[in-house]
Amino acid sequence: MKRTNLSLRGLEIFQLVAKSGSVRQVATETGLSISTVSHHLRAIEESLGVSLVDHTRRPMVLTPAGSIFARHVEEGLRIIRRGETELTSGNLAQVRELRLGIVDDFDSEVAPELAQFLARAMPKCTFKHHTRPSHEIIRLLSEQKLDAGLATRPISQNTGLTEYPVLRDPFVVAVPTSAEVSPEDCLADRGNLPFLRYSSLQIIGSQIEAHLRRSRVSLPNRFELESNHSLLGMVADGSGWAITTPTSFVRAKRFHDQVVLHPYPGRGFARTLSLFATELYPQASAELIAGYLRRLIKRHFVDPISKNYTWLSPGFRVLESNLDDG
């Protein structure tokens, strides 16, 4: 049987095209030109002597031969990546690539210092850094488009990913400094301040709504915002009140003098921020990243706000392991 000349890069490109059906999308994801992606795809087909995708359809679909080949390519690449993982595990200096996602809560204070640290620890590594909302980071990890990502733990904890807890972030009530209203009045919808919601499409928003339902608290839905700064900005100018977290509050520094935090009345609740990693990502590398994240978050978030709001301790704290996640 004649041996073919298949490149590893070409097989990776084929796998991406097989999943998306779009050369243009694969080009965007990989940073390659459309012509380069098409060249890799054609080279594999010519080497095998069969058509793997139907180039006339949009999105492209696999031919019967392509479907068979795709199954073997996925298994083969998984074995190769697992071999790379075993060889580089525990030897950070040999890590070649890291696709890392950071939830946008930490894009200003934590992400730059983390990038500098990883650049020193992994001198041969090519980094791809993504700042996204938590739900998008979890999705990208599930699609194998990221290796690791810091995100809020979803309500459904069955992500299929390895989790390294980093921070317990309790929910609190944020009201305008000028408003004479108690958290109990806010939850009872007494007074003239409307409730400002996070978007229900975000994990933080869905967690708040789930807790309100469990507590049988029903509040009018007039405002729903994706932007943390917009939400706390409206609280600051007296347009409403919100349920938020210390981490979200720290980010909105310019509104600190106009917003005051209160403990959540009754049964409190919290979100957990964790580093999630795919099953192929080395545990030693993930633990190193999680450990450094804990130090950065403690320095930039936990310690500064705990000085002004001493009642946040010990609920607002870094988590050293799953056993500390209470």
UniProtKB/TrEMBL annotation:
Domain HTH lysR-type: 6-63
Transmembrane feature ranges: none
UniProt keyword annotation of NAD present: no
Stored InterPro entries: LysR_HTH_N (IPR000847), LysR_subst-bd (IPR005119), Tscrpt_reg_LuxR_C (IPR000792), WH-like_DNA-bd_sf (IPR036388), WH_DNA-bd_sf (IPR036390)
Molecular-function annotations in GO: DNA-binding transcription factor activity; transcription cis-regulatory region binding
A Pfam entry, by short name: HTH_1
PROSITE patterns: HTH_LYSR
Highest taxon listed in the record's lineage: Bacteria
Gene3D superfamilies: Periplasmic binding protein-like II, Winged helix-like DNA-binding domain superfamily/Winged helix DNA-binding domain
Signal peptide (residue range): none
Keywords: DNA-binding, Transcription, Transcription regulation
Family classification: Belongs to the LysR transcriptional regulatory family.
Protein name (Swiss-Prot/TrEMBL): LysR family transcriptional regulator
